[in-house]
Amino acid sequence: MSSAADQEAVAEQPAAVQRRPRAARPRPPGVPVRPGSPTPLGARFRTGADGVAGTNFALWAGGAEAVELCLFDADGRETRAPLTELTHEIWHGFVPGVLPGQRYGYRVHGRWDPWTGARWNPAKLLLDPYARAVDGDFALPPEVYGHVRDWPQQPVADTVRDERDSAPYVPKGVVVHDVDDWADDRRPKTPWADSVIYELHVRGFTRRHPDVPEELRGTYAGLAHPAAIAHLVGLGVTAVELLPVHQFAHEDHLLRRGLTNYWGYNSIGYFAPHAAYAATGTAGQQVGEFKRMVRALHAAGIEVILDVVYNHTAEGGELGPTLSLKGVDNRGYYRLQPDARRYADYTGCGNTLHVVQPQVLRLITDSLRYWVTEMGVDGFRFDLAAALARSMHDVDMLSPFLAVIAQDPVLRRVKLIAEPWDVGSGGYQVGAFPPLWTEWNDRYRDTVRDFWRHALPDVREMGYRLSGSSDLYAWGGRRPYASVNFVTAHDGFTLRDLVSYERKHNEANGEGNRDGTDDNRSANHGAEGETDDPGIRALRRRQLRNLLTTLLLSTGVPMLVAGDELGRTQGGNNNAYCRDDETGWLDWSLLDDPGWRALHALTARLIALRHRHPVLRRRAFFSGRAHSADGLRDLAWFTARGTEMTEEDWYAPAATLGMYLSGRDIPGRDERGAPILDDSFLAVLHAGADPVEVTLPGPPWAGSYEVVVDTAREEQDAAPGLVHTAGTTVLVPGRSVLLLRVAG
């Protein structure tokens, strides 16, 4: 409990300040409400038993004393209808005549006792947690806070209820009726091992695309445009991973600086497509537009994965606004500390959803199923997934959330990606999630970055990361594709900035350059930021080719960030979460530069190579053992001398590593039951600044080798076709990758 002094400080203030009265306003006449049904939750348009069309409203509000449904006409006039039916803590009613397009919200009555976590305040209009569409923007004037924000004694401000009406200042839910059986849709159903993920921002991807019509840029319709899809198909990616598209709100500190939450990791509506990304309208049209986008991507063979934020909401902590869950049932939806005024914060965002509470778990799983069955998506990447796996306090891989997902007949069949950490104690869980799950592998990211800036003490770690991270995932029946390999993500430097900056440059964010990580593992190669020095520019582009080639040759699931294949830069900003401008948008004019066109061509060529060769996308871990009398193994490691790595070699300082992948020993069979056979490859990765002589392994590994990729070359068209005899020595330039196919 909070101190008695805090409570006394509240009591000493004038009553008129403790509860500021809202201005009197006439109430429009009520509307008839029939009992309706407690299921499904949300607002569902249907025809009643007497043939009268209307909408059933159902809201779980455990502990509430009363619930009012609030309907708004086109002029913003409000009509209130009490929901008097209560079934298992669900308030419900059927309202005849309420049709799709109707805007609505709730007012929930109950005790105001923040000392025990009770924060009901009927002066605040609340967004339905199950709203299928949201109309309007979230501004954050004082009226939308459940407490008196400008209370003279700020340490206890959150305990004083604000009685001003928030309805004029908050968005409304929209009744949606969009029946779709998806009969004409064909999901790609790409196997995990064959997947190449492309992380993109719906708005930023097309906001500057010259071939997308102006009115569609930055929208779901823009991403569905043939020009946008042509880039994805040409690149060869199999899935787009969309930064958050759930309805989200902007934080107050950003709005006060004239900025917004561009990335969208601040959800407030788990069923509603973010309205600002809709070109067709926000009175429910955003739902159909999103579905058409999914259809268009599916028709091109591309899956849709959503980055979802179920770990926290936009309502923040005790000093945050009251927008939805906080006013519906604060104690039911959020984890609270022993001092129930305060929130348990495992996310760094002010609050954490109380996932072990059955109705909260239901909210999340209902949302997930909705996006799969009714919106057509193919999978999810869970932001700060460790927070969802916490039981009462610690991360628990037998938690209710993970158990429910594992047995759900819909969700266990889609792609599930964990960001396997949160900011709480014991929150780092890379390698710990159970089968069915894949994980963002930050160990891969850090190792590859360190290798190419020549900062690893030896090559042991690099060997694990190139071959599928068996040290992390070879347990419980997990496969190499449990590792989502990435070098960059939305959070951090772009690939071009990774080789151009050694320090973050986030001044434009308005936080004194204090935001964003300082652990970038980057190198500027001689100058901080952009430079006209031709030698530095050439080296940087070579490093980009090295990083992309390493990523796309590694066992596991590669993830690219949109624009990295074009040389996109954020000017050294490694935390562009608030930059809804040229900083965060893709610059398609980069394709006019021959150098960046060559990088794009190499990326597409590497992805195509990966698709053609099953040895590069294995479904089982390597054994490292010989399977035939000639001693050839499925995986072998070589020094620059052409000898197999010994224990001593693994621990010795080195900048060169040879990886041999045998196409003769791929486990599994094809669809007809025949053995899977492929070419064999030797990849030589050299991170040293100076050239190195590399002896190519002789028999039984190969008779000769054909050059497939040489990252020392700006243009790759001339590389294939060059053949080296096994056992000969080749000069590998500094900081380069040489990929060779066994030719004999």
Folded structure, characterized:
The chain contains 18 helices and 29 strands. The relative contact order is 0.08. It is 21% helix and 19% strand. Strands 12-13-16-17-18-19-20-21 form an eight-stranded parallel beta barrel. Strands 22-23-24-29-26-27 form a six-stranded antiparallel beta sheet, with helices on one face. Helix 12 (442-452) crosses helix 13 and helix 16 packs parallel to helix 17. It starts with a helix and ends with a strand. By secondary structure, the chain is α/β, with parallel strands linked by helices.
Helices and strands in order:
Elements: H1 4-11, H2 15-18, E1 42-47, E2 53-60, E3 66-72, E4 78-83, E5 85-87, E6 90-96, E7 103-109, E8 112-113, E9 118-119, E10 133-135, E11 172-174, E12 197-200, H3 202-206, H4 220-224, H5 226-235, E13 239-242, E14 246-248, H6 252-255, E15 267-273, H7 285-299, E16 303-308, H8 325-333, H9 358-373, E17 379-382, H10 385-388, H11 400-407, E18 415-418, E19 437-441, H12 442-452, H13 460-466, H14 470-473, E20 483-485, H15 495-498, H16 534-553, E21 557-561, H17 594-612, E22 635-638, H18 647-651, E23 656-661, E24 681-686, E25 692-695, E26 704-710, E27 723-725, E28 729-732, E29 736-742
Parallel strand pairs: 12-13, 12-21, 13-16, 16-17, 17-18, 18-19, 19-20, 20-21
Antiparallel strand pairs: 1-2, 2-6, 3-4, 3-7, 5-6, 7-11, 8-9, 10-11, 14-15, 22-23, 23-24, 24-29, 25-28, 26-27, 26-29
Helix pairs in contact: 12-13, 16-17
Tally the helices. 18
Relative strand content = 15-25%
N→C terminal distance: 76 Å
Secondary structure class reads alpha/beta
Q: Please state how the strands of the largest beta sheet are arranged side by side.
A: 12-13-16-17-18-19-20-21
Shape, please?
A: elongated
Radius of gyration: 28 Å
Runs in which pLDDT lies below 50 for 5 or more consecutive residues are 9-29
Q: Average the pLDDT over all residues and give the rounded result.
A: 94
In helices, the fraction of residues equals 10-25%
Largest sheet: 8 strands, parallel, barrel
User: Can you count the beta strands?
Assistant: 29
